[in-house]
Specification:
The complex is a heteropentamer of chains A (295), B (367), C (232), D (342) and E (273). With 232 residues, chain C is of the alpha/beta class. Chain C has ten helices and ten strands. Classes of the chains: A mainly alpha (295), B alpha/beta (367), C alpha/beta (232), D mainly alpha (342), E alpha/beta (273). The structure holds adenosine-5'-triphosphate (ATP) (2 copies) and magnesium ion (MG) (2 copies). The site of one magnesium ion (MG) has 3 residues of chain E, from helix 1.
Chain lengths: 295, 367, 232, 342, 273
C-alpha cells in the first residue's frame, strides 16, 4: 500500500469513529445547553440502545429496521424518563447536585444492565450490510459510508430544527433563563423534555451506528464513549451543534493518526493534550462563543 | 450460619463480579460454586459442609484487600479461592502470606502472584491453576516457529493490562530466540473498540503471524477489523481467546490458533462438566474461566480433605498449614488437567493448542 | 379584567403576601406602590403564574388562573416585564424581540416597526448581544419584548429603575400612550410621584397588606403617602 | 436570624478541641487493643481516613474556591507514586522518619504538579476547568502507565504495578494526618488568605475590586488542595503496598467529588461525614452482593433529590460550639462556619 | 463645553499644589465596532465629589470599568495620583487607591456582612499564611484590629448590628450600603459609586446623601458617582460631567449643568427637576 492510501484509509477510519463521537457529543451538547448539566448518563443511554437492538434482533428475531426504531424510540423515552424522575426535582438545586445525580443515574444504568443482561458482552447481529467501495487503492467499507452519511444528515436535520423551528427558539430561551422563557409563553417542561428526547434519540442513532461498526454490547460500554463524546463536545465548543460535529470528527481523526504513527499507547494522553491546548488558546472550544460578563 | 462452628469449613471466594471485568469473575464464581455445591450435596467433607463466603472486589485492589481482611477477621475463613484479576490477587497475597492463609486463584496469571521477583520470595501459600503469562507467550512463539514456519510476526495488545503485556513480552523475547522478526508492535488502551489504525499499519508490514494476546471480546473485534483492513496473516492468541468464536465470524477467524488450558468438549470430563454447568446455570456454556474456577475448587477441596484427615480444626494455623502442604503436593484431577505444582507454585500442565475451524474452537494438539 | 381575591403567597416559610385583594378594570392604569420588600414584585409574579398562591383566587378575563402555568397565562394575553428585566443576555436584541412574539403565529413587521419607533435605540442596536447593553437599553428591550406579544394586560415591575430622567419621562409617556391605544396596565413603581400621576387608581402595599387605595390624585394628596413615598 | 454570640475564650477553645481529638483517639486505641476493632475494622478506618483527606482537600478547591476540578485522583496518584518510590529505597531510615519524609515528599511533589497544572487550568472557568483538569488527570495516569516501557527504566512499573512498598500506614498515622490536614485547612480558611479564597468563589470581579490578587489565591488554594491529595496518596501507598495506575482513573476523581457534594459543598464536617459514609457503605452493602452497586447508585440519586445541598449543607461543626451548646450557651464562629437555614 | 481647562479639577483652588486624584487624558475604548467611550478628558481633585451623568448607554459604567482596569482602554492615558496606570490589573488599581461599587450589586452573598468588610480590608491586614495556620500572635493581633476597624466602618451606616447576618439576606438598600462600606474598607483615595441610590426611596436617598458627604469629610477622599436621581446629584456633587454617546458634552457646577441646553436636551428632559 502506498503511503498516501494509508493516510487516506486512516483518515476514513477516523471519520467513521468520529461520526459516532459527533452524534453522541451532539446529544451531550444539547442537554448541556439547556440545563447546563454534564449528563454523565448519556453514554449509558447508548448502552441501553445497543442492548435494545440486540434484544429486538437476536432474541425476538425481528428485522434490523425494527431494531433501529426500537433503539431510537427506546432511548428517547428513557432520556425523557430519566429527566422526569431524576433531574426535574433538582431544577432549582445547585448544579453540582445535578451532576452527582447524573453520575448516580449512570452507575445505576450500568449495574442494572449487568444484573439483567449479564456481565459479558453480547455479540450484535449484522444491522446493515452492503458492498465495500474501492476508491483507487483505498478500501471504503459500507458501514463506514453509512455511518458518516447518517451522522452528517442527523446533524443537518438538527441544525434546521434548532435554528428554524419554534421549538428550537424555545430551547435557546429556556437554556438562558427559565423564568423569562415562561413569561414569553414557552412551556419549560415540554421544552426540556423535548431536548432530552432529541438528545437521547441521537444517542439511539449513535448506538445503532456504533453497533454496526463495533458489534458488541456490554454494560460498561457507555463509560468511555460518553467520556470521549464529552471531550468532543467541549473541544468543539459545548452547546454548539457544528462544534460537536467538528469536535467529534477531530477526536476520531486524531485518534486514528496517533494510533497510526505508533503512539496508540499515548492516544488518550494526546487527545487530552490537544484538548487542553485548544482550550488554552480558545477557552470556549473551537466553535464556542465567548460571552463576557458585563460589569 | 456460625452457630455450630465445627459443622462447616469456611472458604472465601473473592473476585470481580461487578465492574469492567465482571464476566471473568462471574464465570470463576460459577465454576467454583458448581464443584463446592456438588461436594456439599454429596455430604461435604468429613460430614462438614463447605461454607462459601463470597465477596465482590470490583477488580479493585483496595476492595480486594478489604474484603479479604473481612473474610479473615469477621468470617474466619480457612482458605481462599481468588482473586480473579492479577492485580487484585497480588494485593491479596500480600495480606495472606504473612498470616499463612492458603490461597488458590483460578485466573491470576501474573508471575508476581506466587513469586516476588524483587525479594526473591516464593509465596508458599499461594497457588494457581492457570498458566502464568510468560509461559503462554513463549509457547505461542515456539509454536509459530516450529509448526507454522513463521519468519515474521506482529503483535497487538492492550497496554494497560498486565496479562496482555506479560504474554506479549514473553512472545517477543521468545521470537528473538526462535529467529522470528517482530515487524510491528502495536498497543491499544482499555475500552478501545477501534483498532483499524493499528491494523492498517500491521497490514502494511505483511507479517506471517499476528499475536493478539488479549481477552476474547477484544480479540474478536481485532480479527474482524483486521480482515477489513486487509490483514491476511494467521492470528495467534493466549487463553484469553476462549469463546472468541462468539465474537467474530468463522471466515475471519479461520485457521487461527490459541493456547489454552481448556478445549471445549474435547474430553469426556469436560463434556460432563459442560452438562453440569449448563444444568446449573440456565443452559449457559462454560468458559475457560468457569472450568478453571471449578479446578481451583477441586484442588482446594482435595487439600481440605487432607487436612480434615489429619483431624485438625478448621480455621487453626495448623489446619491452614496442612492445606498449603497438601496443595503443594497435590495430584488432583480437575476438568482441564491433572495438577501438580512447580517450585513457584505454578501448575505443571501442557498447553492445549486450539485451532479455529469453521467457526468452532477445536482441539488441535498438546504442545 | 383582573380580579385578585384574598391571596396568600409564601416563599417557603416566609409569608410574603397576606390576604391581598385588588382589581384592574379593562382600560385602566393601576399602580402598586410600597416600600422595598413590601411584596409588590411578589404580587406580579403570582399573577403571571411564576408563583402560585396558597389560597385565594386570581381571575383574568373571567377565568381563574391561580393554578395555571405561566406560559399558558401569557397566551391568554397577559405580559409581565419582570423586575431586573430578565432579558436573554446571550441573544441579540432582535432575537429577544422575536422571543417576545413566541405566542404569535409569526413575527409581524408592523409590531417590530412600532417598537423601533418607540425605542429608536433598539433599532440601532438590533444586532448587539443584549448582555452588553447598558441598563437603560436593557429596560427598553424588556418593554419592547413584552409588547411583541400584543398583551391585553401589561404588568410592569419598576420600569423606571436606573433610567435617565429623560427616559423616565418617556417611559411614562409610553405607558400613557399604550394605555390610550387600549392596553390595560398594572404598574409597580418606587417612583411613586410619577406612578400616581399616570395611574387611574393605585394601591399602597405595606409588608404584604394593602393599606390604602384610591385614585391617583387622592393618594397623591394623602398625607401618609406623601411622607412615606414622596419624600415629604 | 440574629444569634447571640457567647465566645468561649481562645485558649480554652484550643484545649477543648485538642482534648476532644485526644479522647476520640484514645477510644479507638482502647477499642483496638481490646480487640473490638479488628484488623478489618482498622483497615476500613484507615481507608475512611484516606478518603477523608481526599474529600476535604477537594473541598478546598470545590467548596471553598468554587472551582470544579475533575482530576483530583491524578494528584493522589502523583503523591502515591512519589511516596511509594521513596519508601522502597528508604529501608535504611528509621520507620517513623521514613514515613514522615514520604508524606512530606508526596505533598511537595503533588503540590508542584498542582502548581504546574493550576497555572494554565485556572485561567478557565466552570465546566471548562472541569474538563481541563480531567484531561490532566488522565494524562498523569497514562504517563504513569507507560513511562517505563517508553523510557525503558523501572520507575513506576506501569501495568505490572509498583510492588513491595512497605506497608507503613497505620491507624495512628492516618489519624494524625487527618487531624493535621483538617487543622491546616481550617486555620487557613479562617485567615485573610482563606477569606480571599472564599471571595473568589462568591464573586471574582468584586474580589479583584477589593484588591485581591485572584490568580495568586486561586493557585494557592489549588496547590494546597493538590498537596493534601498527595498526602492521601502517600497514605494509600503505605496502606496497600502496591500501586497501579488503574486505581487513579477518572472514576476515582468522580468518587471524591461525590463525597464532597454529598457532604455539602464548603462544609468540612460534611466532607468528613460523607467520606465516612461512602467508604463504609460498600462494605456494609457487601451482603447484597450483586445488588450492591445498584443500591449504592440509588442511594446517591435519592440523597441528591431529597437533600440537594448535601448532607450537611454548608454547616460546619465545631467541638467548641458543641461544647458551648452542652453548657447551655450558644457560641459562634463568625468567619467560615455558618448555619444554613434548615 | 464650558470654557474651563479640561485638565483642571472642578474646584482648583481647594487642593492647590496637590496632584489630582485622577486625570484622564483622551481615554477611549471600543467594543468590536462600537466606540463606548471616546476622548474622555477628566480630572478630579483630592477631596472633590464629582458626578457623572448621562443618558442610558452613554458609557458611564464603562468609564468606571476603565478607571478600575476591568477594561483596558483602547487609547488614551489615565493617571492616578500622577502615576500612569497602564499595566495595572483591577487588583493593582485597588491597591493604588481606587475602590468602587457596582451598578448590579456584587456582594459576597453567602458570607456575613462582617466577612464582606474583612475581605475589603484584605490588604490592610498583615500576616503570612504560616502565621495564620499556626495562629501566631501577629495573626491574633491583626485579626482583632481588623475586626474593630470593620465594625467602625459598618457603624458609619449604622450597620454594626448586622455584622453577623448573611449579606445576601439583607434588604436591597442595606446591600447597597454594605457595598460602599466594603469599598471604603480598602482604604481608597478615590471612591466610585455606580448608582448608589438605585432602588432607594426618597427618604433613604436623602440619608445616603448625608452619608456620602460625611464619608468625604471623614476620610478626605474624592468621590465620583453615577446617578440618575437628580436630587442626589445636584444636591451633593461639586462638579458634574455629562456623557453622551461616549463623549463628554458638558462639565461644570450643578448650576451650570442644570441650565445647559445640550444637557437638557440629551438627558434631563424639559421638565424642571
Ligand atoms: N425568592 C425569595 N425567597 C424568599 N423570600 C423572598 C424571595 N423573594 C422575595 N422574598 C421576600 O418577600 C418579600 C416581598 O418581596 P418583593 O420582592 O415582592 O418586594 P418588593 O415590594 O418588590 O420590593 P422591591 O421594591 O425591593 O422590589 C420580601 O420580604 C422579600 O425578602
Ligand atoms: N463588554 C461590552 N461589549 C460591547 N458593548 C458594551 C460592553 N460594555 C458596554 N457596552 C456598550 O457600551 C455602551 C455604554 O455602556 P455603559 O454600561 O457604560 O452605559 P451607562 O452609561 O452606564 O448606562 P446606564 O446608565 O444605563 O447604566 C452601551 O451602549 C453598551 O451597550
Ligand atoms: Mg420588587
Ligand atoms: Mg451604568
Amino acid at each position: 500500500m502506498s503511503v498516501l492510501s494509508t493516510v487516506v484509509s486512516q483518515f476514513i477510519n477516523g471519520l467513521q469513529s468520529g461520526s459516532v463521537y459527533a452524534l453522541i457529543a451532539l446529544g451531550y451538547s444539547m442537554v448541556y445547553g439547556i440545563i447546563m448539566l454534564l449528563n454523565f448518563a448519556h453514554g449509558d443511554i447508548i448502552m441501553v440502545g445497543a442492548y435494545l437492538v440486540w434484544i429486538t434482533m437476536s432474541i425476538l428475531g425481528l428485522p434490523p429496521a425494527v431494531g433501529i426504531i426500537a433503539a431510537i424510540v427506546g432511548c428517547a423515552l428513557l432520556g425523557v424518563f430519566i429527566e422526569k424522575i431524576a433531574y426535574t426535582p433538582l431544577r432549582k438545586s445547585p448544579r453540582l447536585s445535578l451532576l452527582i445525580t447524573a453520575i448516580g443515574v449512570s452507575f445505576f444504568l450500568q449495574n442494572v444492565a449487568q444484573l439483567i443482561m449479564g456481565a459479558g458482552s453480547k455479540t450484535m447481529p449484522t444491522i446493515v450490510s452492503g458492498p465495500n467501495v474501492r476508491l483507487g487503492s483505498v478500501n471504503l467499507s459500507f458501514v463506514a459510508i453509512v455511518t458518516i452519511v447518517v451522522a452528517l444528515v442527523s446533524m443537518a436535520v438538527l441544525t434546521i430544527l434548532v435554528q428554524k423551528t419554534k421549538m428550537g427558539k424555545a430551547m435557546r430561551a429556556v437554556s438562558e433563563d427559565m423564568g423569562a422563557a415562561q413569561l414569553m409563553g414557552i412551556s419549560v417542561n415540554k421544552t426540556i423534555s423535548f431536548t432530552f428526547a432529541i438528545g437521547s434519540a441521537l444517542a439511539g442513532i449513535g448506538a445503532v451506528l456504533y453497533s454496526c461498526a463495533y458489534p458488541q454490547a456490554s454494560p460498561t460500554m457507555g463509560g468511555m464513549l460518553g467520556l470521549k463524546a464529552f471531550v468532543a463536545a467541549v473541544l468543539g465548543g459545548i452547546g454548539s451543534i457544528p462544534g460537536a460535529m467538528i469536535g467529534g470528527f477531530a477526536i476520531g481523526v486524531l485518534e486514528a493518526f496517533v494510533s497510526a504513527v505508533g503512539l496508540s499507547v499515548w492516544k488518550e494522553g494526546v487527545v487530552f493534550a490537544i484538548l487542553i491546548l485548544v482550550l488554552l488558546i480558545k477557552p470556549t472550544g473551537i466553535m464556542g462563543r465567548e460571552i463576557k460578563e458585563k460589569v | 450460619g456460625g452457630k455450630d462452628k465445627d459443622s462447616s469449613i469456611k472458604v472465601g471466594l473473592l473476585g470481580c463480579i461487578t465492574g469492567d471485568y465482571a464476566q471473568y469473575g462471574v464465570a470463576v464464581f460459577n465454576g467454583a460454586k458448581l464443584y463446592i455445591n456438588k461436594v456439599n450435596a454429596e455430604g461435604g467433607i468429613n460430614g462438614k459442609k463447605i461454607e462459601l463466603i463470597e465477596y465482590d472486589d470490583k477488580g479493585d485492589s483496595t476492595e480486594a484487600v478489604n474484603a479479604f481482611t473481612r473474610m479473615v477477621d469477621n468470617d474466619g475463613i480457612t482458605a481462599l479461592i481468588g482473586s480473579v484479576l492479577s492485580g487484585a490477587s497480588i494485593a491479596v497475597v500480600g495480606e495472606a502470606y504473612p498470616i499463612g492463609m492458603p490461597v488458590i486463584s483460578a485466573s491470576a496469571t501474573a508471575a508476581a502472584f506466587t513469586y516476588n521477583e524483587e525479594t526473591d520470595t516464593v509465596y508458599s501459600n499461594a497457588f494457581r491453576v492457570c498458566f502464568i503469562d510468560p509461559f503462554q507467550g513463549e509457547k505461542m512463539a515456539q509454536f509459530a516457529a516450529e509448526k507454522l514456519d513463521a519468519k515474521t510476526a506482529a503483535v497487538i495488545y492492550e497496554t494497560g493490562n498486565d496479562y496482555a503485556v506479560g504474554l506479549k513480552d514473553a512472545f517477543v523475547k521468545e521470537c528473538a530466540e526462535q529467529g522470528i522478526t517482530v515487524v510491528a508492535d502495536e498497543g491499544y488502551s482499555k475500552g478501545d473498540k477501534d483498532f483499524r489504525s493499528q491494523l492498517t499499519n500491521i497490514a502494511a508490514k505483511e507479517p506471517d503471524v499476528v499475536f493478539s494476546p488479549n481477552y476474547y471480546e477484544d480479540d474478536g473485534m481485532i480479527v474482524t477489523q483486521a480482515r477489513q483492513v486487509g490483514v491476511t496473516a494467521t492470528f495467534l492468541g493466549g487463553d484469553g481467546w476462549a469463546r472468541v468464536t462468539e465474537y467474530a465470524s468463522a471466515a475471519d477467524l479461520e485457521g487461527s490458533y490459541y493456547c489454552s488450558s481448556y478445549a471445549a468438549s474435547s474430553t469426556d470430563a469436560i463434556k460432563e462438566f459442560e452438562a453440569e454447568y449448563a444444568e446449573a446455570y440456565n443452559g449457559e456454556a462454560p468458559s475457560m474461566f468457569a472450568a478453571l474456577g471449578y479446578d481451583a475448587a477441586v484442588v482446594l477441596v482435595d487439600a481440605l480433605k487432607a487436612a480434615e484427615a489429619k483431624k485438625l480444626k478448621a480455621g487453626t494455623d495448623d489446619y491452614k498449614a496442612a492445606v498449603i502442604d497438601a496443595m503443594k503436593n497435590t495430584s488432583s484431577v480437575g476438568v482441564t488437567s491433572k495438577y501438580s505444582f512447580d517450585e513457584f507454585n505454578n501448575p505443571i500442565k501442557d498447553a492445549v493448542i486450539i485451532k479455529v475451524e469453521n467457526g468452532n474452537e477445536v482441539f488441535a494438539q498438546m504442545f | 379584567m383582573l380580579t385578585v381575591k384574598d391571596i396568600n403567597v409564601f416563599y417557603g416559610p416566609i409569608h410574603a403576601i397576606k390576604g391581598v385583594s385588588f382589581e384592574v378594570k379593562a382600560g385602566e392604569v393601576v399602580a402598586l406602590i410600597g416600600a422595598n420588600g413590601a411584596g409588590k414584585s411578589t404580587i406580579l409574579k403570582t399573577v403571571s403564574g411564576l408563583l402560585h398562591p396558597k389560597t385565594g383566587s386570581i381571575e383574568f378575563d373571567g377565568e381563574d388562573i391561580s393554578k395555571v402555568d405561566p406560559h399558558k397565562i401569557v397566551k391568554k394575553g397577559l405580559a409581565h416585564v419582570p423586575e431586573g428585566r430578565r432579558i436573554f443576555l446571550r441573544m441579540t436584541v432582535m432575537e429577544n424581540l422575536e422571543m417576545g412574539a413566541f405566542t404569535q403565529k409569526s413575527l409581524r413587521d408592523d409590531d417590530l416597526e412600532r417598537i423601533f419607533e418607540r425605542f429608536p435605540r433598539l433599532k440601532e442596536r438590533r444586532r448587539q448581544i443584549a448582555g452588553t447593553l447598558s441598563g437603560g437599553e436593557q429596560q427598553m428591550l424588556a418593554m419592547g419584548r413584552a409588547l411583541m406579544s400584543r398583551p391585553k394586560l401589561l404588568m410592569l415591575d419598576e420600569p423606571s429603575m436606573g433610567l435617565a430622567p429623560i427616559l423616565v419621562e418617556q417611559i411614562f409617556e409610553i405607558i400613557e400612550e399604550l394605555n390610550k391605544s387600549g392596553t390595560t396596565i398594572l404598574l409597580v413603581e418606587q417612583n411613586a410621584g410619577m406612578a400616581l400621576e399616570v395611574a387611574n387608581r393605585a394601591y399602597v402595599l405595606e409588608t404584604g397588606h394593602i393599606t390604602l387605595s384610591g385614585t391617583g390624585e387622592e393618594l397623591m394628596c394623602s398625607e401618609e403617602v406623601r411622607k412615606a413615598y414622596l419624600g415629604g | 436570624m440574629k444569634k447571640k454570640m457567647v465566645h468561649i475564650p481562645m485558649p480554652w477553645r484550643y484545649v477543648i478541641n485538642a482534648a476532644a481529638i485526644a479522647v476520640i483517639f484514645l477510644i479507638f486505641m482502647v477499642l483496638s487493643s481490646a480487640g473490638v476493632i479488628t484488623n478489618y475494622y482498622s483497615k476500613i478506618l484507615m481507608l475512611i481516613g484516606i478518603n477523608m483527606i481526599l474529600a476535604v482537600s477537594l473541598n478546598l478547591a470545590t467548596g471553598y474556591l468554587g472551582q470544579l476540578p475533575l482530576g483530583h485522583a491524578g494528584f493522589m496518584a502523583v503523591g502515591a507514586y512519589a511516596s511509594g518510590i521513596f519508601m522502597r529505597t528508604a529501608s535504611g531510615l528509621p520507620t517513623g522518619l521514613a514515613v514522615l519524609l514520604s508524606i512530606i515528599i508526596a505533598a511537595v511533589v503533588a503540590g508542584i504538579f498542582g502548581f504546574l497544572i493550576g497555572i494554565p487550568a485556572l485561567r478557565l472557568k466552570g465546566d471548562y476547568l472541569a474538563i481541563i483538569t480531567l484531561g490532566f488527570g488522565e494524562i498523569i495516569r497514562v504517563v504513569l502507565l507507560n513511562i517505563d516501557s517508553v523510557l525503558g527504566f523501572n520507575f513506576t512499573y506501569g501495568a505490572a504495578s509498583l510492588k513491595n512498598i512497605p506497608k507503613t500506614t497505620t491507624f495512628t498515622v492516618t489519624f494524625l494526618c487527618v487531624v493535621v490536614v483538617c487543622f491546616f485547612i481550617h486555620t487557613m480558611m479562617k485567615s485573610r488568605q482563606g477569606r480571599a479564597i472564599l471571595s473568589i468563589r462568591e464573586n471574582e470581579i468584586a474580589a479583584e475590586s477589593c484588591g485581591i490578587k485572584t490568580t495568586y489565591y486561586k493557585t494557592m488554594a489549588f496547590v494546597a488542595s493538590a498537596a493534601f491529595a498527595g498526602v492521601a496518596g502517600s497514605l494509600y501507598a503505605g496502606y496497600l503496598g502496591i500501586l497501579n495506575p488503574a486505581n487513579f482513573g477518572f472514576m476515582k476523581s468522580i468518587e471524591i467529588l461525590v463525597m464532597v457534594v454529598l457532604g455539602g459543598m464548603g462544609s468540612m464536617i460534611g466532607s468528613l461525614l460523607s467520606a465516612t459514609v461512602l467508604s463504609a457503605l460498600p462494605e456494609m452493602l457487601r451482603a447484597f452482593s450483586d445488588y450492591r452497586m445498584v443500591a449504592y447508585s440509588l442511594l446517591l440519586i435519592l440523597v441528591m433529590i431529597f437533600k440537594p445541598s448535601g448532607l450537611m449543607g454548608t454547616y460546619d461543626f465545631s467541638f467548641t460550639r458543641l461544647f458551648g451548646g452542652l453548657l447551655g450557651k450558644k457560641t459562634g464562629d463568625s468567619t467560615v462556619g455558618k448555619e444554613s437555614g434548615e | 463645553m464650558s470654557k474651563r481647562d479640561i485638565r483642571e479639577p472642578f474646584i482648583p483652588e481647594r487642593d492647590k499644589g496637590l496632584t489630582p486624584t485622577i486625570e484622564c487624558i483622551g481615554l477611549g475604548i471600543d467594543f468590536g465596532g462600537l466606540t463606548a467611550v471616546d476622548d474622555f478628558n477628566f480630572t478630579l481633585g483630592r477631596t472633590e465629589i464629582g458626578g457623572l451623568i448621562g443618558p442610558n448607554g452613554a458609557g458611564k459604567t464603562t468609564v468606571f470599568n476603565l478607571l478600575t482596569k476591568v477594561y483596558q482602554p483602547t487609547r488614551g492615558q489615565m493617571l492616578l495620583l500622577g502615576r500612569d496606570t497602564k499595566d495595572m490589573t483591577t487588583a493593582d488599581a485597588n491597591c493604588a487607591g481606587i475602590a468602587r461599587t457596582f451598578q448590579n450589586i456584587r456582594l459576597f452573598k453567602d458570607l456575613t456582612v462582617l466577612e464582606n468588610v474583612l475581605i475589603g480590608l484584605h490588604n490592610e491586614i498583615h500576616y503570612t499564611l504560616p502565621e495564620a495556620i499556626f495562629r501566631l500572635p501577629r495573626y491574633w493581633h491583626a485579626e482583632k484590629v481588623a475586626r474593630e476597624r470593620a465594625i467602625d466602618l459598618l457603624s458609619i451606616f449604622n450597620m454594626q448590628d448586622m455584622a453577623d447576618d448573611i449579606a445576601g439576606s439583607l434588604p436591597y438598600g442595606a446591600q447597597r450600603r454594605l457595598e460602599i462600606v466594603r469599598a471604603l474598607a480598602t482604604n481608597p483615595t478615590l471612591l466610585l459609586l455606580d448608582e448608589p441610590a438605585a432602588g432607594m426611596n426618597p427618604s433613604e436617598t436623602a440619608e445616603l446623601m448625608e452619608t456620602i458627604r460625611h464619608i468625604r469629610d471623614m476620610f478626605k477622599i474624592s468621590i465620583l458617582l453615577i446617578e440618575h436621581d437628580m436630587n442626589l446629584v445636584m444636591g451633593i456633587c461639586e462638579g458634574i460631567a455629562v456623557l453622551n454617546y461616549g463623549r463628554l458634552i458638558a462639565k461644570g457646577t450643578p448650576e451650570e449643568i442644570k441650565n445647559d441646553p445640550n444637557v437638557i436636551e440629551a438627558y434631563l428632559g424639559k421638565k424642571e427637576c
